[in-house]
Amino acid sequence: MSTTDTVTRKRHPHDDAPRTATAFARLSHLPDGPERDALRDELVRAWLPMADRIAGRYRGKGEPFEDLRQVAALGLVKAVDGYDPDRGHAFESYAVPTVTGEIKRHFRDHMWALHVPRRVQELRNRVRGALQDLSATGAERRPCIAEIAACAQLNEEDVRAGLEALDSYAALSLDAESPGEDAAVTLADLLGEWDAGFDLVVDREAVKPALCTLPERERTILYLRFFRGMTQSRIAEQLGVSQMHVSRLISNSCATVREKVLADAAQRAGSNSSRGNAGSVGVPMPMRGR
Is 19:10 a contact under the CB 8 Å cutoff? Predict the structure, then answer.
């Protein structure tokens, strides 16, 4: 008997419900091989109209219909592979929730702009339904948290989580106009930039203990060079030494401070390994005098 003889049509409210009980019974007893693969493919083709009909329920929700059809077809294949006719249930009662679940999983994993846990997504749906019910009453003001919680039968904390999730499904373009601003101002214009001064603050705090261990003359030279911006020649003139001597003192002082900072960082990392390896800390390098 061919696979086409096994899968036949019957009268049904939907024209996508073929008579496949006999085919599934055969499939469950066939060993792996070409005959089983052919029958499996025939069953998938026979039920594809049902999968397309389910995919059509989600048309217009932000995903191309062809992509939804592919997702529904994948769910159908999983349903065919997982269906057990010996349980006594019709294939359609097993396949419909399987295909629907696959489509919903696709929306959950690929369509949200931000990853939101499934529980929060469910809270979002309940809050959205409550908002729709409350708006149908004709109230001109937006319902408060307590009113939404009473309508959705949730606590106020869950309502707040659901309200936040309402804004997580789709992202707002950075080219969008900023609310309350001039039309020429976009959200991108309001974004801050990284302030390199933060790294400088961290480095300064890191070298402070090491600087305190230097002799007073070396500390003075480093202060004049890196904080006052004086050239080595001017420092040498002020201290009454040669420029070469100032350059050598700056190099030695920077090397001493660097070694001290790295040694302290390594010691802290060793005493508390859970904090990870300490990175190197930037220390000002000596510059040639002009």
Answer: yes
